[in-house]
């Protein structure tokens, strides 16, 4: 296991981050505890959760396990999506941020959240007020660092700029979707993160199981079970990319899942890659990614199996222009 700096925080996190969204759903509490123990034993010191995962049950399961390991783990949570059933128990309003964090602290049985992500852009909440509330939580010691998840590049940059302008605690980390079939982050998000020195923790590295190849042979998983994932990966081109990728992995003698994660990990801007599982066997297979270190040539070969997203301006890149000449 390698460790990397979390942006400019001075904190080091493992190159893999344990995702807990399955806890209390696909993984019962016993399986969840086994997954956390395995992750911790393998050197993962970065655990990711959210206040709405399984209506708060996920955080309760993490909270019941984490006690003796608390000071060794960088623990995250997120706020935005509905949780609690009330009309205002959603979004990143000042009211919901303050309330949701208090409930999360209780469920996690801890006095602080090391990294709190705003889980989605909120067009109905004043950004200044949201960041002021987040800054208050940081000043109180209930939150240590601030992050953003599922924000577009312009929304991230707007948030970073407002925090700087108002002298609030800085944004330290972003969490975009990123995998071999979902490469939109390469267009603006990853370059912006590098320029602003933000940590990057991508999720969906294996595309809800798509890149394992299991759906090609009638396997089951999130793409069968959840409409959100069916829609996210409905593009017919993704199936062909997956076929090419699975064939490439077989030629290399590697399982597709860890290779898909290794491809994400090899991107220079990536700090830590989010991985989750329903059981230990699944998790241990994914952890084989730690034995795969892709040189630039092999990463380029895998990337070529996919479809390049267009340049941010939908023109040639400056490198291409210079190569072509004027």
Describe the structure.
The chain has 326 residues and is of the alpha/beta class. It has one domain (3-207, 263-294): TIM Barrel (Alpha-Beta Barrel). Helix content is 40%, strand content 13%. The chain has 13 helices and ten strands. The chain has helices at residues 29-41, 57-66, 94-108, 127-139, 153-165, 189-196, 222-225, 227-232, 236-252, 256-265, 280-286, 296-303, 318-324, and strands spanning 3-5, 12-14, 16-19, 46-48, 74-79, 113-118, 143-149, 171-175, 199-200, 273-275. The strands form two sheets. An eight-stranded parallel sheet has the order 9-8-7-6-5-4-3-10. Strands 1-2 form a two-stranded antiparallel ribbon. A hairpin with a 6-residue loop joins strand 1 and strand 2 (12-14). Helix 2 packs across helix 3 (94-108) and helix 3 runs parallel beside helix 4 (127-139). The longest helix is centred in the C-terminal third of the chain and has 17 residues, at 236-252. The protein is globular and about 50 Å long. The model has no long low-confidence stretch (mean pLDDT 95).
Give, in order, the helices and strands. Answer: EEEHEHEHEHEHEHEHHHHEHHH
Question: What do the pLDDT scores average to?
Answer: 95
| CATH C-level category | Alpha Beta
**Helix share bin:** 40-55%
What do we call the CATH topology? TIM Barrel
Overall geometry: globular
CATH architectural name: Alpha-Beta Barrel
Strands, count: 10
How would you write the strand order of the largest sheet?
9-8-7-6-5-4-3-10
What count of domains describes the coordinates? 1
End-to-end separation: 47 Å
């Amino acid at each position: 296991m390698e460790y990397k700096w979390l942006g400019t925080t001075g904190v080091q996190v493992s190159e893999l981050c344990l995702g807990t969204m399955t806890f209390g759903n696909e993984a019962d509490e016993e399986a969840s505890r086994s997954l956390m123990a395995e992750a911790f034993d393998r050197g993962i010191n970065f655990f990711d959760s959210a206040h709405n995962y399984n209506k708060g049950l996920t955080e309760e399961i993490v909270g019941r396990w984490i006690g003796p390991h608390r000071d060794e783990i960088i623990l995250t949570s997120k706020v935005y999506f509905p949780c609690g059933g009330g009309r205002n128990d959603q979004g990143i309003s000042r009211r919901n941020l303050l309330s949701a964090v208090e409930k999360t602290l209780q469920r996690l049985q801890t006095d602080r959240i090391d990294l709190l992500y705003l889980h989605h852009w909120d067009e109905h909440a004043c950004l200044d007020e949201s960041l002021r509330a987040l800054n208050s939580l940081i000043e109180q010691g209930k939150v240590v660092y601030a992050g953003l998840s599922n924000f577009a590049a312009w929304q991230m940059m707007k948030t970073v700029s407002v925090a700087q302008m108002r002298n609030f605690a800085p944004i330290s980390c972003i969490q975009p979707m990123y995998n071999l079939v979902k490469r939109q982050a390469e267009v603006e998000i990853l370059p912006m993160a590098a320029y602003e020195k933000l940590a990057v923790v991508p999720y969906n590295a294996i595309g809800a199981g798509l890149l394992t190849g299991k759906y090609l042979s009638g396997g089951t998983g999130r793409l069968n079970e959840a409409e959100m994932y069916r829609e996210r990966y409905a593009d017919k081109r993704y199936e062909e990319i997956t076929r090419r990728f699975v064939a490439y992995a077989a030629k290399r003698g590697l399982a597709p899942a860890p290779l898909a994660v290794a491809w994400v990990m090899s991107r220079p801007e990536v700090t830590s890659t989010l991985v989750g599982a329903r059981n230990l066997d699944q998790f241990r297979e994914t952890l084989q990614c730690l034995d795969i270190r892709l040189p630039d040539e092999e990463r380029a070969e895998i990337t070529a199996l996919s479809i390049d997203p267009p340049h941010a301006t939908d023109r040639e890149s400056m490198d291409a222009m210079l190569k072509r000449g004027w």
